[in-house]
Amino acid sequence: MKHFFTNWRTDPVESRREQECPDLTHERNNTRILKEQEAELKAVIINFHIKENSEAHNTDQYEVEHLILKRGQAFDITVKFNRAYNPQTDFITLQFATDKNPHQNEAFTARVEIQDVLLLSKWGMQVKEASGNTVCLSVMSSAQAMIGCYDVKVETKRKGSCSGEISQYRCKNGEQIWFMEDS
């Protein structure tokens, strides 16, 4: 009788999730403390390499604190995480989002994932270098990206995660990237 009630679920979504992810029930019932290497990957800080990227994009003559980039060109950012990045188990996504543009009356969001090959002038990114808790990413923006200011978020998730939990890091202190029209 006890076995019958432990497997009975009233929530059909929860029941379906357990059928698709049998480890989910096991994880719930057997609470465990994750070791350092098993902890969820979380971004701690982002370095936009403002000086280097500004020089590479010929925007270093602008006297502003934000990174100004030309659309359709690659740039580097470095993300420091709470632990070492493992490409076999960790999934990293960068999100670039604008506010509503008064001229187009809409906001824009690009979700950029790690790819094997960067396509010229299309959103994409590659791991340039991973060392310890730090990952340097080469990001390609679209040549048609909306001109303006973008907020940047780093999203991380464990590959094959049934729970769907995403850790999200938003740049602090108003750090943003500006994309300008090519000249």
TrEMBL record:
It holds the Pfam family Transglut_N. GO terms for molecular function: protein-glutamine gamma-glutamyltransferase activity. Residues 46-157 form the Transglutaminase N-terminal domain. It comes from the Eukaryota. SUPFAM superfamilies: E set domains. Belongs to the transglutaminase superfamily. Transglutaminase family. This is Transglutaminase N-terminal domain-containing protein. It comes from Desmophyllum pertusum.
